[in-house]
Write a structure and sequence with these properties.
Elements: H1 13-28, H2 39-45, E1 57-62, E2 68-73, E3 77-81, E4 85-98, E5 101-112, E6 115-118, E7 121-125, E8 128-132, E9 137-141, H3 156-163
Antiparallel strand pairs: 1-2, 2-4, 3-4, 4-5, 5-6, 5-7, 7-8, 8-9
Keywords: Signal
InterPro entries: At5g01610-like, DUF538
C-alpha cells in the first residue's frame, strides 16, 4: 500500500531555494570568490599605486579575510631603476596586504651594493612609499610608482616605445 503525502505532487521548491540561497551567500562571502578586479586595481583598494608591480601580472589570489595574497607573472622578472637600483621579481609574489601596508613579502628582491636582499615590507605613509629589507629601509615619493615598470627595461621601455616602433624587450 502506498503512503499518502499531503505534499505529493507539489514541488519542494522552498527547501531547494533555501539551500541555493545559502550556497550563494557562502560563495559571495568566500575569501576566494572571483573578483572582477585585476591585481593592479586590487592593490589600489588598499591605497597602493599600481606601479609597485611590474607589467604582465597574469593573475592573483586574495583572501580578503586574512589579507593573504599571491600575484603571478609569466616568469621571473628583473630590471634596473633610476638611482642604480636593480629589482628582481620571482614568478610568484606573496605576502599579506592591508590598508597602506604589505607585510611578510616573498618573491621581490633588490640589489644593494653586491648583495641581493629580500624586500619584506612596503608601507605607504602619506605620499611616501617605504621599502624595508628587514635591517634597513628606504623611502621614495609615491609619484615614482604611478607607472608600472616592464620586465627587462623598467621604466625606460616607455621612452623606447615612443622613439622606436619595434623595441627589443626580453624577460629573464
Amino acid at each position: 500500500m502506498a503512503a499518502t503525502n499531503s505534499m505529493a505532487g507539489k514541488p519542494h521548491s522552498l527547501p531547494a531555494a533555501l539551500i541555493l540561497f545559502v550556497l550563494l551567500l557562502v560563495f559571495l562571502h568566500s575569501p576566494r570568490a572571483v573578483s572582477s578586479l585585476d591585481a593592479y586595481e586590487a592593490l589600489q583598494e588598499f591605497n597602493f599605486p599600481e606601479g609597485i608591480l611590474p607589467k604582465g601580472v597574469t593573475g592573483y589570489e586574495l583572501d580578503r579575510e586574512t589579507g593573504r595574497f599571491r600575484a603571478f607573472l609569466n616568469g621571473s622578472c628583473s630590471f634596473s631603476l633610476e638611482g642604480g637600483y636593480q629589482l628582481k621579481y620571482k614568478s610568484t609574489i606573496g605576502g599579506y596586504v592591508s590598508n597602506n601596508r604589505l607585510t611578510n613579502l616573498s618573491g621581490v628582491s633588490v640589489k644593494v651594493l653586491f648583495l641581493w636582499l629580500n624586500i619584506v615590507e612596503v608601507t605607504r605613509v602619506d605620499d611616501e612609499m617605504e621599502f624595508s629589507v628587514g635591517i634597513a629601509s628606504a623611502s621614495f615619493p609615491i609619484d615614482n610608482f604611478y607607472e608600472c615598470p616592464q620586465c627587462g627595461c623598467g621604466l625606460d621601455c616607455v621612452t623606447e616605445v615612443r622613439t622606436n616602433p619595434s623595441p627589443s624587450v626580453s624577460s629573464i
